[in-house]
Specification:
The chain is of the alpha+beta class. Helices cover 59% and strands 14% of the residues. It has a five-stranded mixed β-sheet with strand order 2-4-5-7-6, with helices on one face. It is elongated.
């Protein structure tokens, strides 16, 4: 009776029943009694059904309140066909969606916590080494050739930290969805050349030759894609021996453009092979300069452009990375 609409409807029904009963008594006593009895019965039936309906609504309200207060294991009871059943079904869908979002948020928080811990660990190691080198340089005995050696090592560590921070910022931009990929047509030769530019001195120092067989073009974001290829090349250089070669084969067909990068180094162990593209994963043969983010960043960049990257062991030795960038119409 707290519902104004129910009260108004009940008053209207009573007025109609009174009018009908008055008309019936005007005709005859029996007709008046029949009309009054029937009207009263119908009003009582209406009130009983309304009360039952409101009890169901009250129970549904209690269940929703429990869901909002964290009882995510609650299940909405099935109702008969009708508006309440439809409402309960929609609330059930909403509850499932809220549970999924809550689980996703929990996973994101755990992932963020783990990522921060990994980042702190990755950065702490070279910073600690830089601190030790600074202490050695401050000592009076650190002069001449020894001093220059320590300075070179310190510069290398600082370069590693700078690269790590830059890579992590790029990963965070892709994770947040703020990275912008501008698609344009570019020849595969130009893309490979752009990716190899940062390694010109490093390749010469290690006497590593690039054997390239490139043809065709690709539609992608040149800057981001060159970054992805560079990280793969960097990995190949780190695992290649002095005087070896890295082979790059690139071509296109009607479905995708493909870039295959292979080296003749130590290869990838079977235990590490399924994890090489995982963030912060360092294989059994990784050196101190390997932070485990380069290949993960490459996969993220390529995935954002409808691309894939796969790793396998080369025959007879070495590692082989296959990059495929699919054309948009194949989606």
């Amino acid at each position: 009776m707290r519902n104004k609409e129910v009260r108004n409807l009940l008053v209207l029904l009573l007025l109609l029943a009174a009018a009908a009963a008055f008309k019936g008594f005007a005709m005859s006593l029996a007709a008046g009694i029949l009309v009054a009895t029937t009207s009263t019965a119908l009003i009582l039936i209406f009130m009983l059904f309304t009360r039952r309906r409101y009890r169901r609504l009250a129970a549904l309200s209690v269940q929703i309140d429990q869901i909002l207060h964290g009882n995510d294991s609650l299940q909405i009871e099935d109702l008969d066909e009708g508006e309440l059943s439809i409402l309960a079904t929609e609330i059930q869908k909403m509850t499932v969606k809220l549970r999924e979002q809550a689980d996703s948020l929990r996973r994101d928080k755990l992932y963020l916590s783990d990522s921060i811990a990994d980042i702190a660990h990755q950065i702490r190691t070279p910073i600690s080494s830089i601190g030790i080198l600074t202490t050695l340089l401050a000592q009076a005995g650190a002069e001449g050739a020894r001093s220059q050696e320590l300075l070179r090592e310190q510069e290398t560590l600082l370069a590693h930290v700078d690269w790590l921070v830059t890579a992590l910022l790029k990963i965070s931009r892709i994770d947040a969805g703020t990275a912008v990929f501008v698609q344009q047509d570019i020849s595969l030769a130009s893309l490979i050349e752009k990716a190899l530019q940062p390694f010109a001195i490093n390749l010469e120092l290690h006497d590593i030759e690039i054997e390239a067989e490139v043809s065709g073009s690709v539609r992608c974001d040149p800057a981001w894609t060159a970054e992805a290829i560079s990280n793969v090349v960097k990995n190949c250089i780190e695992h290649s021996s002095y005087g070896s070669a890295i082979r790059i084969e690139a071509s296109e067909n009607t479905v995708f453009s493909q870039i295959v990068i292979s080296d003749s180094g130590s290869g990838i162990s079977e235990a590490d092979l399924p994890h090489v593209f995982e963030r912060f994963y360092r294989g059994s043969g990784a050196d101190n300069g390997n932070f485990g983010v380069g290949l993960a960043l490459s996969r993220m960049i390529l995935s954002e452009q409808n691309g894939t990257i796969q790793a396998q062991n080369n025959i007879p030795q070495g590692a082989r990375f296959t990059i495929k960038l699919y054309r948009q119409q194949t989606l």
